[in-house]
Amino acid sequence: MKISVIIPVYNTEQYLAECLDSVIAQDFGDWECLLINDGSRDGSGAICDAYAQSDSRFRVWHKANSGVSAARNLGIEHATGSYFAFIDSDDTVDTGYLSRLYMAMTDNNA
Q1: pLDDT value at position 110?
Q2: Is the N or C terminus of the chain more exposed, i.e. has fewer CB atoms within 10 Å?
Q3: pLDDT given at position 54
Q4: Of 106, 51, 57, nearest to 80 (Cα)?
């Protein structure tokens, strides 16, 4: 696995599917996506579960709310990629996001 995408999720039900669809649309194929549901009280957890059930590249952890840093750290603990990318659950990324990130990291021996 080249890149582990870590997405902390907290009450972003209205944006989350668009965010995850933008990850699926990447032109870079060697990635996994770790969804850390940080105690959401809306439908975010169910959306995370649905993506993980339909696409094996997504994995989900549900935890009590403890903040974005703790959620990111949990993702790092479970990541299998050589590199990490962090995306906020209310954002989307361009289709070339991971490929450009990977090229920049490998070209510069990051």
Answers
A1: 85
A2: C
A3: 98
A4: 57
> 3-state SS string over 3-66?
EEEEEEECCCHHHHHHHHHHHHCCCCCCEEEEEEEECCCCCHHHHHHHHHHHCCCEEEEEECCC
Look up tokens 């059930």; give the residue: 53
Residue 3, Cβ density class (10 Å: 0-12 exposed, 13-18 middle, ≥19 buried): buried
Q: Which amino acid is at 78?
A: H
Distances (CA, A) of 99 to 31, 48, 58, 67, 96: 10, 24, 18, 29, 5
Q: What is the pLDDT of residue 79?
A: 98
Answer yes or no: are the C-beta atoms of 74 and 36 closer than 8 Å.
yes
**Hunting for tokens 């949990």 — which residue is that?**
74
What pTM value is reported for the model? 0.97
